[in-house]
Each structure stands twice: as C-alpha cells, then as structure tokens.
C-alpha cells in the first residue's frame, strides 16, 4: 500500500491530533502526551479521547474519535494492544489519515501477537488509515512542536531520524543535545513496520524544507527493494545515511551454494545501499557525525585528501585511516610544497601528509597559511586537519586561544572560498574550546576520534561520486515475466536443486558461455565423448543431490581420453560410497581448461533486497579469500564494471606475472546476462557459477548449480514503489 502525498503530509505535519487513551493520571502516557504537546509549543488542535472522562488539562474529552467535531489528521493511540482494533473500527468514516500505535504485544511477541498485528493492519486499510508502528516510541515534528514521544532532549536542526529502536533514538537525541549545530527536523519510530515502512517516509522528508539529511537506524527492512528504489530517487537532493545492525557473521543465513554462504548481511547491505547512493556506516558513533557533515560540508570532486598535522604520529595514523576507508593521500605538487616551505621549518614534511614539525607552536595562524596552500593544490579534494588544533591555549599558554579563534574563523572562510570540505580532528575536542565552537558554528566538523573523522570524510567524498553515478546504475525494478522452471519438471518432481547437467543446459539455452560438454551414462559413451575433444578431459558426476562434487570424489581432472571409461566407473563407485542414497544420472565430459583467472559469479535471493548478484575470486578458496562484490538486480553495465572495480585482487585481473589482462568487457557481459537470466526466471533462488574462467580471450562457465524455489515463490513477493511519473490512469 503506497502512501498518498497528501496523506503523509497530514500524518507527518498534522493540524489536528487526537490522543486516544488520554488520562488525568499524570503518570500515564495519555496524560504526558497532552502535556508535552501543550508545553512544547504545538499550535494545532488537541483532542483527548476517553469514554470515562470529561476534561483533561483544560481540554474537553471526547468518548471516541468519531465523536470529534472536526477532521482529525493523526491519532496517537496509547491504549493496550487488545483495545486497538476497536479504536480503529470506531474510526470508520472519520477521514483519519494516520495513527501512531505505541503498544507492544504484536508481531514481536510471536504467533498470537502477529495475528493481532495482521488484524489492526486489515482494519486500518479498510478505513483508509496508515499506521506508524505498532511497538513504536512515537514520532516528533520538531519544528512544529509536535512531540508524541515525550522526551525533552531533542534539539532542533536539519536531520530527520527514522529509527527502529526507541533506546537508540534517545541515545542519538542525547548525543546531539551535547553538541553545537546538530539537531533534528523529524523523528519517526517505525516500530514493526506493520503498515508504513521505511521507504514510504523518504519522499516527504526529501520535500521537507527543514530536512537536510535523512538518518536511518535499521534492524530489518520489511521491503528492502522498495527502500532501494525510493532512496535512489531522493539521495541526489537529500542524502540518506543508514546504520544497519545485525552485521556480524552470526547474521549469515545458511545456503546450499558458495554464493549463499558468502552473502552475509553486512556485505550485501553495504553493497546494495552504495548502489542506491545511500551512505552506510557501521558504527553508532559515526552516524550523527557523518549525517551532520553531509548537511554542512561542500561536496568534493574526488577522493583525494590533504592531511595537515602538527605531529608525525597523527600524520601517519591519519594516512592509514584514510587509506582504510578507500581515500587517497596524494603527493602534493612541487609548487604547493614550495609554498609550504615558506611557512614551515626545515624539519617539516611537505609531501602529504604535511607535518608542521613545531611550526605552529608559537603562531597558530600558520595552520591557515598551510591549509590555504593545500586547498589550492589541484590534486586535493578535501582537507583533514589533525592533532591539537583548538587546544593550544590549554596545552601551551592561554594567550594562544585568541590566536586560534582567529585561525578557526579563517579556516572556515577557506572552506567557503575553495568550496572544499575541511574536517578537524583534535585531541582537545572534549574540552569544548572557543576555537572549536567557531568552527562548528561555521559548519566545520570537529571530532575527537581519527577513525570517525576519516569515516566522515569518506562519507562526504563518496556521496558525491555515488550520486553522480546513479543515472547509469540500476533502478532496482524487476521486470518479472514468469517463465517456466529452467529445468522442466524439477519443481513438479519436488526437487529444488538442479543437477549440473540441468543447470548448464538452461544457461546454454539462454546464450551464456558454458564450456562444451557431453552427457554420458556408461563407460563406452565416456570414451567416445572424450575422443571428441582435443586433449585431456574433465569428468564430473551428474546428480541433483550433491552440490560440492569434489568432496564426494565425483570429479576427475586431466583425464586421458583412453582412460575415460575406467574413470567413469571410479567416479560412480566413489560417489555411491560417499552417499548411497544419491541419485546418479551419469557423467559430464568436458575439455580441460587450465589458463585464466578463476572467478565466481552467483545470485542469491536476499530476504530483504530480493535477487542480488555476486562476483569475485572463485575456485576452491573462494570462502577463504572472500574477495567478492555484490549488487542488486537488474544490473546495468555501470553496476557490473563497479563490481569488478570492488574486487581487491585487481592485479590478477590486470595480468599478474606477465599474464595478459582479463577481458573485462566479457566479464561485464556475462554479469549482465546472468542478471537477465535470473530476472527472466523468478523461480531461481540461487545460482552458482564457480569457477568461471576468465582470460584475455573471454569467459567460460566451467561449473554451474541452480536452486529453484517452490511454486509458491515463483511470482515475486517484492513490492515496488511507483516510478516517477507513474499514475493510476
């Protein structure tokens, strides 16, 4: 159920609010909600609802929502869970836009709670009401004074927070309240996402003039695919920052293929969010810092960072931290180095990182001269100032504080003059000094942690690049035209795992580059098939019951054609000993392939994001190396090339030890063909091509395994958001 623009406006910025479950008891949520609205400056109408009261805090109380004499935009329901259905039933015909259901006891509590949750969603949809929650801490429109949470520590600002944890929200509110220049425009505790889901808030927040950045704390997305689609539409104007919990290896789901076992929650989530232009962070202390920097800093043109440090230790650690985040610390031009030498002592390092070597100890304005020189360098896209800046008045002499204040003002001016982001990391950040206050007031972040400072610069630097690349990236809209099971009959036979023979036949029929093969069912056929190929052959058992055939002794390599019959018998015997119950259909005979880089290409049906393709180093060590990249389907050429660029072992792709480089175009074409194959066959839940042999002449699929879902999964469960310009006409 997609949200109507008018309705979401009425929910997020209501003029009339009903508090259902209002109470005269000051300890109850139904009293505190009214008190918070009245004392928080909310300028709309407030209607308490309670069938057993007449007046609360000077307001007339109504027995039901339907008894209120004007149209209500939003209802805050603070009744017990079992009462919520009757409240919603009463709202029939009221034109209520939305309801915030605070109560617990729904889907998070098991089967019985899920049944109750399903009931209230059904009732709400019958009445045309959208639900926030249940199991939510509430919502806040900070600039409007609409506080349906009750906390009084929410500073006003430009960050909109969508959060799946009330305690996490309180932590972020508290963190922001202790820092200058960080505040919120909206907060929504999305709760169970029973009705309104993360992606449905994005268009409103994107259009909201008070919101500069959308911040999300996510435990699980009910519809990750729709989130990707909607985020892609808004991030070019309004950055989206996501902290996704549940990132550990414990979160990896079991799967029958290499691809499935490698598709950990964090690996997939980070990759597909990046594909949508979303900034993903992996630490809670990065979330607000990154979001605030995106709201205040100019967008850099590239990933090159100049480092200005007042100590060698900070300089080296900064370079390491930036490199770990994928940023570059380039050598400064000769003219820049010459300019720096004019301001610094002979002992200073002016290459990058720049170590002032005591050159700022007695005159902190030298920082400004050095920063100006670095920012003017054509190789620099951003500046990190690291060390003690802002604390010289504490560390050395109080008289330096005034000098640093002037330097801070000048540094902030430089950021505007060069339209280049500056981030300051200072060991004295916790002392709340006057120079730091000047920087923050002017939008320059001041951070204590070098890791967080590096993450902040990385986020700002990569956000611009990702936004610019979106026009050539996937729109995440799957054109599912249901096709038959790629191996006719496997589903009807109750099998989900296709044999290698079935898998290769299906892929070859779709035009994918599969190694030539012949299927044989006895030793004589094996000898004849082997003779048809030039040179040694590979023999592999054909069974739908064993995925990793090498473990079962079901693979023989470099077989002389004359020995193919004997090897056939040996394979059958070995696999029967390994698994006497396995169905043995025969043996595949293929020519040996010995040169090239072994890749793995696969697809898994991710529970949050739908079909996701993987590419990386393959072969027998794939799960040890884990050098892989992910993207959500459907792939574009730009997505496929980005995947190859994400692989760490670039030297192998470029031709190690004198070998010619891999034909990247051929790998890209195969990735796109795989994407199209899975899109055309929605019954495919896992696809594993390992290895795929890539060399200078092209690519070839050596081994393949396909897993199909049952009939109940053949039509996609993925809900898409409307495309821009779509209408119901």
Description:
The protein has 729 residues and is an alpha/beta fold. It folds into 4 domains: 5-211, NAD(P)-binding Rossmann-like Domain (Rossmann fold, 3-Layer(aba) Sandwich); 298-471, Rossmann fold (3-Layer(aba) Sandwich); 479-514 and 593-729, D-amino Acid Aminotransferase, Chain A, domain 1 (2-Layer Sandwich), CATH 3.30.470; 516-591, ATP-grasp fold, A domain (Dna Ligase, domain 1, 2-Layer Sandwich). The chain is 35% helix and 19% strand. It has 24 helices and 29 strands. The strands form 6 sheets. The chain has a 7-stranded mixed beta sheet, sandwiched between helices. Strands 24, 25, 26, 27, 28 and 29 form a 6-stranded antiparallel beta sheet that branches. A 5-stranded parallel beta sheet has the order 2-1-5-6-7, with helices on both faces. A hairpin with a 2-residue loop joins strand 3 and strand 4. The radius of gyration is 31 Å and the shape is flat. The two termini are 17 Å apart. The model is unreliable at 250-263, 711-717 and 725-729 (pLDDT under 50).
Task: Please render the helix and strand layout as text.
Elements: H1 5-12, E1 16-20, H2 29-39, E2 45-49, E3 55-56, E4 59-60, E5 74-77, H3 84-90, E6 98-101, H4 111-127, E7 130-132, E8 139-141, E9 146-147, E10 156-163, H5 166-177, E11 184-189, H6 198-207, E12 213-218, H7 224-234, E13 240-244, H8 258-262, H9 265-275, E14 279-281, H10 284-296, E15 305-309, H11 312-324, H12 334-341, E16 354-355, H13 366-375, E17 382-387, H14 392-395, H15 400-418, E18 422-426, H16 434-441, E19 446-447, H17 450-469, H18 500-509, E20 518-520, H19 523-531, E21 537-542, E22 555-559, H20 564-578, E23 586-591, E24 597-606, E25 610-617, H21 622-625, E26 628-632, H22 637-646, H23 650-653, H24 664-680, E27 684-695, E28 698-701, E29 704-708
Parallel strand pairs: 1-2, 1-5, 5-6, 6-7, 10-11, 10-12, 12-13, 13-14, 15-16, 15-17, 17-18, 18-19
Antiparallel strand pairs: 3-4, 8-9, 8-11, 20-23, 21-22, 21-23, 24-25, 24-27, 25-26, 27-28, 27-29
Helix pairs in contact: 3-4, 6-7, 10-17, 11-17, 12-13, 13-15, 15-16, 19-20, 22-24
């Amino acid at each position: 159920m997609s949200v109507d623009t008018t309705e979401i406006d009425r929910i997020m910025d209501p003029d009339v609010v009903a508090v259902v479950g209002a109470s005269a008891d000051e300890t109850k949520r139904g009293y505190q909600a009214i008190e918070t609205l009245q004392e928080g400056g909310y300028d709309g109408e407030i209607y308490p609802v309670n069938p057993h009261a007449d007046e609360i805090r000077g307001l007339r109380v109504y027995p039901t929502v339907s008894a209120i004499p004007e149209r209500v935009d939003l209802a805050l329901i603070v009744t017990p869970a079992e009462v919520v259905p009757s409240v919603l039933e009463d709202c029939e015909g009221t034109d209520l836009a939305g309801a915030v259901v605070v109560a617990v006891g729904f889907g998070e509590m098991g089967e019985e709670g899920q049944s109750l949750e399903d009931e209230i969603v059904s009732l709400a949809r019958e009445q045309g009401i959208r639900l926030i929650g249940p199991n939510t801490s509430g919502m806040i429109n900070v600039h409007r004074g609409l506080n349906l949470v009750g906390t009084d520590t929410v500073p006003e600002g430009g960050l909109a927070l969508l959060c799946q944890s009330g305690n996490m929200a309180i932590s972020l509110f508290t963190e922001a309240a202790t820092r200058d220049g960080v505040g919120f425009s909206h907060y929504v505790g999305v709760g169970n996402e029973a009705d309104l889901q993360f992606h449905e808030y994005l268009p409103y927040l994107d259009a909201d003039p008070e919101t500069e950045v959308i911040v999300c704390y996510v435990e699980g997305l009910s519809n990750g695919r729709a989130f990707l689609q909607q985020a892609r539409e808004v991030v070019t104007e309004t950055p989206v920052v996501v902290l996704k919990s549940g990132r550990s290896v414990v979160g990896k789901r079991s799967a029958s293929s290499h691809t499935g076992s490698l598709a950990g929650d964090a690996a997939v989530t980070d990759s597909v969010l990046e594909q949508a232009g979303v900034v993903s962070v992996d630490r809670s202390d990065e979330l607000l810092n990154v979001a605030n920097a995106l709201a205040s800093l100019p967008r850099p043109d590239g990933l090159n960072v100049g480092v200005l440090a007042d100590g060698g230790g900070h300089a080296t650690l900064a370079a390491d931290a930036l490199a770990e985040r994928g940023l570059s610390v380039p050598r400064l031009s000769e003219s820049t180095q010459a300019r720096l030498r004019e301001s610094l002592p002979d002992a200073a390092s002016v290459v990058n990182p720049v170590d002032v070597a005591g050159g700022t100890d007695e005159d902190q304005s030298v920082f400004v001269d050095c920063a100006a020189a670095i920012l003017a360098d054509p190789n620099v896209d951003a500046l990190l100032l690291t060390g003690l800046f802002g604390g010289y008045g504490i560390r050395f002499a109080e008289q330096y504080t005034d000098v640093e204040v002037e330097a801070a003002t000048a540094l902030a001016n430089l950021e505007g003059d060069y339209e280049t982001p500056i981030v300051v990391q200072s060991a004295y950040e916790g002392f709340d000094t006057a120079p730091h206050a000047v920087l923050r007031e002017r939008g320059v972040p001041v951070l204590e942690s070098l890791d967080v400072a590096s993450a902040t610069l990385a986020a700002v630097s990569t956000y611009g690049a990702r936004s610019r690349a979106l026009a050539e990236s996937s729109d995440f809209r799957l054109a599912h035209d249901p096709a038959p099971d790629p191996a006719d009959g496997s589903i009807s036979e109750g099998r989900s795992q296709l044999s290698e023979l079935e898998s290769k036949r299906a892929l070859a029929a779709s035009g994918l580059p599969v190694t030539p093969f012949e299927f044989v069912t006895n030793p004589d056929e094996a000898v004849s098939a082997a003779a048809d190929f030039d040179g040694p052959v590979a023999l592999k058992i054909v069974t739908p019951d064993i995925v990793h055939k090498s473990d079962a002794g079901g693979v023989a390599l470099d077989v002389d054609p004359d020995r193919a019959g004997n090897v056939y018998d040996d394979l059958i015997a070995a696999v029967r000993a390994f698994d006497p119950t396995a169905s043995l259909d025969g043996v595949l005979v293929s020519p040996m392939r010995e040169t090239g880089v072994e890749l793995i290409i696969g697809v898994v049906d991710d529970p949050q994001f739908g079909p996701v393709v993987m590419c990386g180093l393959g072969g027998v060590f794939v799960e040890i190396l884990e050098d892989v990249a992910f993207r959500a389907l459907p792939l574009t050429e730009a997505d496929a090339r980005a995947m190859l660029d994400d692989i760490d072992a670039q030297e192998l792709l470029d031709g190690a030890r004198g070998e010619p480089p891999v034909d990247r175009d051929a790998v890209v074409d195969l990735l796109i063909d795989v994407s199209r194959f899975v899109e055309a066959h929605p019954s495919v839940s896992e696809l594993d091509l390992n290895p795929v042999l890539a060399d200078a002449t092209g690519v070839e699929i050596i081994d393949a395994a396909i897993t199909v879902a049952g009939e109940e999964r053949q039509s996609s469960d993925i809900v898409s958001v409307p495309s821009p310009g779509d209408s119901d006409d």
